[in-house]
Write a structure and sequence with these properties.
GO molecular function, one term: DNA binding
Structural class: mainly alpha
Mean pLDDT: 92
Protein name: DNA-binding transcriptional regulator, GntR family
Strand content: under 5%
Distance between the termini: 48 Å
Number of strands: 2
Organism: Eubacterium aggregans
InterPro entries: GntR_C, TF_FadR/GntR_C, Tscrpt_reg_HTH_GntR, WH-like_DNA-bd_sf, WH_DNA-bd_sf
Keywords: DNA-binding, Transcription, Transcription regulation
């Protein structure tokens, strides 16, 4: 039983790592038999890992065919931004309340470094994927500050959706530069401990990305 559980974890970790690294191609159907052979595992632990990933909406299972990367729906988009807003707003309030602590100061410095890296991408490569990774790190840093392991794990479970929704929204001309400006506005409000203004700015910031993705999905 213990060995089976370890194999399930091994299969899950392999697939999640492949997804996050972009090694699985969107739209491609992956056979369980071929994937199990590639991983050197039996189908049973792989099937259990695939079922878990389907529940987390990383993949879609196609009966008698295999699985493919999850296709975003309107529900996915709305739900993701609702979850983000709820978690991030709380974490930003906590950061504002603890701005003058060593941990608060370290978090603010970290957030500023992430913005600087985003600005470099805009000015140099213009890569939406690189920018999206830095954007995820920027927002995740807010959640990490609170030190709530359960909350952070919930946020991380949305990482794949957050990342690819970001890539999509950042493909719109000018959106990356606008995001840097919006992040800088948020930083100013954090330093001034303007909680009401910060929550409004976060809501505005996330709503823009949500509407871009919904608009592109409708097309």
């Amino acid at each position: 039983m213990k060995e089976t559980t370890l194999l399930q974890i091994q299969a899950y970790d392999y697939l999640i790592d492949s997804i996050k690294k972009g090694e699985l191609e969107p739209g491609h159907i992956y056979s369980l038999n071929q994937m199990a052979k590639k991983m050197g595992l039996s189908k049973t632990p792989l099937r259990d890992a695939v079922l878990r990933l389907e529940q987390e909406r990383y993949i879609d299972i196609l009966p008698s065919k295999g699985f493919r990367l999850h296709t975003m729906t309107q529900e996915d988009i709305v739900e993701t931004y609702q979850i983000r807003n709820a978690i991030e707003a709380y974490c930003l309030r906590e950061l504002c309340h603890n701005m003058d602590t060593p941990g608060g100061k370290a978090c603010v410095d970290k957030l500023q470094r992430k913005i600087d890296l985003q600005r470099e991408i805009v000015e140099n490569t213009g890569s939406s994927e690189d920018f999206a990774r830095r954007d995820y790190e920027f927002h995740r840093s807010m959640v990490q500050f609170v030190g709530n392991a359960t909350m952070l794990e919930m946020y991380r479970s949305f990482m794949y959706r957050i990342f690819w929704l970001n890539v999509t929204s950042f493909s719109k001309e000018g959106r990356m530069a606008d995001t840097v400006t919006e992040h800088l506005h948020m930083m100013s409000m954090i330093r001034n401990q303007d909680i009401i203004g910060l929550e409004e700015q976060l809501d505005h910031h996330l709503n823009i990305a949500k509407h871009i993705n919904l608009e592109l999905l409708s097309k």
